[in-house]
Structures are given as C-alpha cells and as structure tokens.
C-alpha cells in the first residue's frame, strides 16, 4: 500500500513538472509570438512611411523627366511653331540646359529600407508577395532606372564636350543673350548639325527608357503599399 502511494506521489510530481515545463514553453512561445507580431508591425509601418515619401519623390521625378523629354522633342522638331511650343513649357533657359547638357538622377529615400535590411528585421515579415515586391522595387526597377541614368550621363558628357569643341559661343555668350536669342541659336545649331542632333536623339532615347522603368517602379510601389496597408489594418 505504501509503495502504491509512493509511486502515485512520484507520478503526480512528474505530471506537475511536465505541466510546469510545458506551461513555461507555452508562455515563452506566446510572448515571442507577440514580440514578433509587434516587430512585424514596426517593420511594415516603417516601410509604409518610406513608401509615402518615395511616392512624392517619384511623382516629382516623373514630372521633370517628362518635361526634359518634351524639351528635347521641341528642340529637334522641324515644325515652324516648335519654339513657341517650347516656350510654353519652360520658364528659363536653365531648363533647356538641364535637358541638353545635364542629366537627371534618381535617388529616392531608402534609409528605412536599408536599415531594415542591415538589421535583418525583414525576417519578421511573413508575406512572400510583399518581399517579392520589395525586391522588384528596390533591386530590379531601381537598378534599371539608374542604369539608364548612367547611360544618359555618358551621352550628356559627350554632348557637353561636343558643344564646347564646336560651338563654344553656346557657353561663352549665354549670359549676354536674351532668352529668345539663346533658344533660336540652339535650335539653329541642332537643325544644321546632324551629328549634334544624333547625340540628342540618343539622349532622348535613354531618357525615354528611364521614364519607362520609372512607370514600372511606381506601379510596383502602389501595389506594394496597398498590400502593406492591408496587413497593417489586420493588426
């Protein structure tokens, strides 16, 4: 009898220990789940904030990219009213200089995303579709845009050197001429110099492709932000 009571006592103690260990594991697992959920919310919220900032930046870039393209289009156009059309979209000759002898870069705010990657906290995001869209946005399309920025920079440098070698007055007399005179002089050079016009056509092509990938970039941004907002609303 005493032996049976002793066995039963040890059995009860064993059950209590097992239940205690199991409860401890469950509490720890539950605590970790809550912590991971909170970390996931912080990561998604930070991404959402930065995507809003990138949205504003991208819209501004798209506007000036398109304007640069239109400037080159009117400069190369042989239509009689091309100068008037050009003057309708610009307010100073500096805008022409940017389109012809300069280039537009693309550097959206990425501090939050880079911190998330460096800290490894992207692991808290469980959605594969969000991770895939993040990769498309910050790797694929971002790199495509900047590859064309690099191409545009190369042709821009060639254009600047070509003008300096063949038409130094474009730079030397710019401050002495009126807005209209500067436009007509540049337009005349373009129409009478096929080499220069070819350079501008190449630059225009790189600008077009840059804008094309910016459109893809922006579409991906909108899709990604919608998915993140949906996840945040489920909290």
Shape: elongated
Query: What string, H for helix and E for strand, traces the elements in order?
Result: HHHHHHHH
Spans of at least 5 consecutive residues with low confidence: none
Helix content: over 70%
Q: How much is the radius of gyration in Å?
A: 31 Å
User: Span between N and C termini?
Assistant: 57 Å
- Count of domains: 1
pLDDT average, as an integer?
88
What fraction strand?
Answer: under 5%
Count the E strands: 0
Q: Profile the largest sheet.
A: none
- Number of distinct helices: 8
Helix-and-strand structural type: mainly alpha
Which secondary structure elements does this structure contain, and how are they paired or packed?
Layout (H helix, E strand, L loop, with lengths): L1 H75 L5 H6 L5 H9 L9 H9 L8 H39 L2 H4 L6 H14 L1 H40 L2
Helix pairs in contact: 1-3, 1-4, 1-8, 5-8
Description:
The chain has 235 residues and is an all-alpha fold. The chain is 83% helix and 0% strand. It has one domain. It has helices at residues 2-76, 82-87, 93-101, 111-119, 128-166, 169-172, 179-192, 194-233. The protein is elongated and about 110 Å long. The chain starts with a helix and ends with a helix. The mean pLDDT is 88.
Please outline what is shown here.
With 235 residues, this protein is an all-alpha fold. It has one domain. It has helices spanning 2-76, 82-87, 93-101, 111-119, 128-166, 169-172, 179-192, 194-233.
